[in-house]
Amino acid sequence: MPTIPSRSTGETASLLAFFGGTFDPIHFGHLKPVTQLAQNTGLDHVILLPNNVPPHRPQPGASPQQRLHMVELAVEGNPLFSVDPRELAVDTPSYTIETLATLRKEHGESCPLAFIIGQDSLLTLHKWHRWGSLLDFCHLIVMARPGYHEQLDTPELQRWYDAHRVTDAENLRHQPAGFIYQANTPLLNISATEIRQRRKAGLDCSDLLPDAVERYIESQGLYRA
């Protein structure tokens, strides 16, 4: 178990939490677990980071501008969320480590930063660019994903996970980076792939994503081809 450095009595740092994704499109499988996560861990705010050129998956069907607009529509009027479009401003692959390094410079060395990922991403984290440096810049908050096992692929990766894991979310506020917290979030079997497939088949998607996003998708004729 990692050692928790002490702070002055009564001192509690604000935890900045970021949630990145392709959001092609954004849906309830993104929004509802993060909302529950915020309630469970005392997060006041979550910043969504739509990425432009995802290096680990097929390229998006919607344009960067369309995906950004869908994210903005999905969280409009919800004080829990805001949107940071910085990764959409560049045409190069969106490497999380580079975004986190920039965020660390902006917020200072002592500010606790967290990056929210799904269990599926945790299991493939060792394939990310400079993955071993991620915890130098942030904490990782891991959300459950249906159908994914909990153990990492190799004993070495499992030891890395066990060495950094904490079981109390409050610990994330007492150090700028370096911890992994496994959140107890609802298991929602919703995926952007399913939504795109249902759209292509002419099926209803109203139960999978916010009304404003569905209306925009229809108005733009997205995911029909």
Verbal overview:
With 225 residues, the chain is an alpha/beta fold. Helix content is 34%, strand content 13%. The protein contains eight helices and seven strands. A seven-stranded parallel β-sheet has the order 3-2-1-4-5-7-6. Strand 2, helix 2 and strand 3 (81-83) form a beta-alpha-beta unit. Helix 2 (64-75) runs antiparallel to helix 8. The termini are far apart. Pathway: Cofactor biosynthesis; NAD(+) biosynthesis; deamido-NAD(+) from nicotinate D-ribonucleotide: step 1/1. Pfam families: CTP_transf_like. It comes from Rahnella inusitata.
Number of helices: 8
Cα radius of gyration in angstroms:
18 Å
Largest sheet: 7 strands, parallel
**Count of strand segments:** 7
Helical residues, percent? 25-40%
Q: Specify the structural class.
A: alpha/beta
Low-pLDDT windows of residues:
1-10
Query: What is the strand arrangement across the widest sheet?
Result: 3-2-1-4-5-7-6
Mean pLDDT: 90
Assess the beta-strand content as a share of residues: 5-15%
| Overall morphology | globular
The SSE string, one letter per element, is EHEHEHEHHEHEEHH
Amino-to-carboxy terminus distance: 50 Å
GO molecular function, one term: nicotinate-nucleotide adenylyltransferase activity
Function: Catalyzes the reversible adenylation of nicotinate mononucleotide (NaMN) to nicotinic acid adenine dinucleotide (NaAD).
EC number: 2.7.7.18
Keywords: ATP-binding, NAD, Nucleotide-binding, Nucleotidyltransferase, Pyridine nucleotide biosynthesis, Transferase
